[in-house]
Design brief:
The structure holds two protein chains of two kinds. Chain A is an alpha/beta fold. Chain A is built from 16 helices and nine strands. By secondary structure, chain B is an alpha/beta fold. The chains are: A alpha/beta, B alpha/beta.
Chain lengths: 421, 215
Amino acid sequence: MLGLFDALGRAVVRLGRFLRPRNLRRIAAWLPLYAPLAARSTRRRLLRYLLVGLSLGAGITVYLCLVASLNGQASGLARRTGEMELPAHVLVFGLAGPGSQPVESLKWVAPAGPYEPFDRWRATTSLGQRWVVGLEPGGRLWSDLGLESGSLPAGGEVLVAGDLAQAAGLGVGDVVVLAGAGSDERVILRVSGTLDDRTGRSALYEEALVVALPTSLEARARLGDRDPRVDALAVWERDPGDLDRLLGRLRELFPAASLWWAGLPAGQAYRTAGGFLSPGRVTCALVFVLAGLGVFNVMLLTLLQRKVQLGVLKALGAEDDEVFLLLLLEGALTALGGTALGLSAGLAAVAWLDKASAVTLALSPSSLLWAVILALASFFAAAWLPATLCRRATAVQLMAGRRLYLNPRSTCAQCGRCGGF
Amino acid sequence: MGDGVWALRRVDLDVAPGEFVLVTGPSGCGKTTLLNLLGGLDRPTRGDILLREVAYSKLDESGLARLRRRELGFVFQFFNLLADLTAEENVALPMRLVGTPRAEIARRTAELLEAVGMAHRARHTPFELSGGEQQRVAVARALANNPAIVLADEPTGNLDSRNGEEVMNLFRRFNRERGQAFVVVSHDPGFSAYADKVVRMQDGEIVATTAGGGR
């Protein structure tokens, strides 16, 4: 493993050296000569290079379908949350109960916005069966509450939807009673104000009773008709200065709950890698290893069959790096074509699968970007070895059609039992 | 090193500007190795090669590549034209490698193809040319950058006798007209009539250096 990291480190250093301004100027000077040569060569080996393009294209298509299916799970969650008709930029997750999702699945929707804890449950009240919504005081949803009259509810207080209050003849200071399903327990809440129904968040607030989160949890516990246990709480993208206070409060309120926030190592890793580290995406990315193997085979075959030609080019005065560039350029032309093909095919496949199957598929711009990056990276990784073999071989070795070794002066090359390339 | 296998040993060869040297000898005597060394395609384990006071040993791989571009021309037994390019593009390639202006490339390419009698086949690819025609294009390519020395490895080895004679006549003509030195490797001693100097090799050593016919 250390050897692998060592090799990777050296490759990065070498790449850095290769991309020095002086070298880039040299490459820019070579391009007018070698780009047409590469294009000509690609055209003459169209079928073979088409295979390179198709390998990458197929890789991208499969990758996009897999990622879209993973994203689909996320959009499924978002859709379920959306049914609550919350403001689109706020995704809420928190309390245990029917329909709640495991907190791990949140990472798929993490880029969508911040989270805050909330509670929503069905209760038998003096106003009939109603939703009781418990909000985090000072939270985003709390601040967005449109008051028609009165004030936001403190502990033991309740905010009633405007139409409901009017129909029931309730005003500030009146009392609403919550009853237990199978007990004589009662919770009495005083009306602190009414909610403006025209705020448009009807599904969450319509005919609901809005209370502070601690009041909601306490009421559930006392009435005993719902399990008030909190499994997990996710806090996302909070003001860092505010986070400690919030975490402390949540720990106090929900001692049994596991607490997730952006500062957790998993969250940090997720942020740093932009989701790449998640096992699902890594699995998807493995598709490109297979695509890369396809590219590698075709490139190697194509280059090895042209040993003599490349040797002649060197004999005529082409430098080793120039030959290397020529070979990479040849492959890159088809890799770009294959990438475009793969993106088109992938988008079409995702759109079709989304319509034709029960699975929800969704693509984000970052998925497309990753597909392009991974496809090009797998191409360069796959084309690097064949191109390096030709770069390191001497003109005489190439023209004589001798077997090629990555390090022509190594003992392995002297031994030759492995057969080389 | 004493017990090792020597491809060449105690080789001391001077090629004067404008000289036509024929290197002959049996198969495996080291002719091609000598040519590869002169062309900077291989490096000697000992000794050095000097071209216009420039020692090959002082040059790195890039330096040798630049030297080959500007100072050396190559003609191979199997012609080795680049299959993806037409005859004129093959001739133009060495000039493009040194960055000659396009107009100059076009002029000199036409002139060289005319000189080797291949102007009418300029747009043909190597697959569409006969062996003799390919070799004539290869000669034009070798002369593209006005090299100080042209190295030819068995240039007639894959041609019939008539085409072989034609190629040798071309060499001699360019040698006289342009004053470029030629080192031609051939197992056929009959070509000594074209040379100013004939070098005979055996078992990696130069065993005789004689004057050629110089015709």
